[in-house]
Design brief:
Mean pLDDT: 97
Low-confidence stretches: none
Radius of gyration: 18 Å
Distance between the termini: 21 Å
Strand content: under 5%
Number of helices: 11
Number of strands: 0
Shape: globular
Length: about 280
């Protein structure tokens, strides 16, 4: 059965935060980008970073690199002006970065607040993700900064040496190669690495957590497999209009936020593939 746009809209407005409601209005109801920017800025700290559970799986108020990625992705989605927000976020990341410009995905401060189990004690190494995705969004937003310049060079060097072996990192790297012209030729290497990557969900019948082909370019897969995953995505819309999540967020507020987030993502995927009838 085709997905219901009207039911999905109801879920977003019922369960989403102001951010998701503003984003939905911008994407589908001619809302302005200013409201989205204002909602994003409500999660910003004085250090230029973002926290307060912007990415809802950890609710620490302190700035987190993953929340910077979430913020920049949202700004890019609505083509916002990031000429002040972007450099300030880079200033924050610079305080955490190693010589390559890489940063941890989250900081130990997450352990002092409710969080999903996968964040553990918050002690993570400096790594290519989320820096590579952040660099991609900065390029899309036209933000220049010494940290962005350094990390872009490091990401290019790392990808040329070896593609990531984990699906989330490949997805982050895809953001980078689609936005940084010098990296465009590396996309085929990512496509080649994906089928064997950890947390890649190739089987449409798999009910577990993972990133399916629909999170990646269609031309990386044969039509039969990709269409089977689109069929699965359509079938997963629930009675309340939203899509489910396959992990345990830290509380009911985070569950509600995530369901609105994944519902908007599902609508975007289905619409891009001609599977969604959007109300005029």
């Amino acid at each position: 059965m085709p997905a219901s746009f009207e039911k999905a809209r109801e879920l977003v407005y019922r369960s989403g935060r102001v951010l998701e409601r503003r984003l939905f209005a911008r994407l589908y109801e001619d809302g302005g980008s200013e409201g989205v920017v204002s909602a994003v800025l409500s999660y910003r700290n004085d250090d230029g970073g973002f926290g307060h559970g912007l990415e809802p799986d950890k609710l620490a108020p302190q700035s987190q690199p993953l929340d910077v990625q979430f913020a920049l992705r949202t700004l890019a989605d609505v083509k916002a002006d990031a000429s002040e927000i972007g450099p300030a976020a880079c200033d924050f990341l610079e305080t955490l970065a190693d010589e390559r410009g890489f940063v941890p995905i989250v900081l130990p401060s997450v352990a002092d607040y409710p969080r999903a189990d996968h964040w553990g004690d918050g002690k993570f190494p400096h790594a290519i993700s989320p820096a590579i995705a952040i660099a991609g969004y900065l390029h899309e937003l036209g933000v220049a900064h010494p940290w962005a310049e350094r990390v872009t060079a490091s990401c290019l060097e790392a990808l040329e040496k070896e593609p990531p072996s984990e699906a989330h990192q490949i997805h982050d790297a895809l953001i980078f190669v689609q936005r940084v012209p010098e990296a465009a030729q590396l996309a085929p290497r990512l496509a080649e690495a994906l089928p064997k990557a950890d947390w890649f969900k190739a089987d449409p019948a798999d009910e577990g957590y993972g990133l399916p082909p629909t999170r990646f370019p269609r031309d990386w897969f044969d039509d039969e497999l990709y269409d089977a995953h689109l069929d699965k995505l359509e079938s997963e819309q629930q009675e309340d209009g939203g899509w489910p999540i396959a992990w345990e967020p830290p509380g009911p507020g985070s569950v509600a936020a995530w369901r609105a987030i994944v519902t908007i993502e599902a609508l975007e995927i289905l619409q891009a593939n001609g599977r969604l009838s959007v109300r005029a």
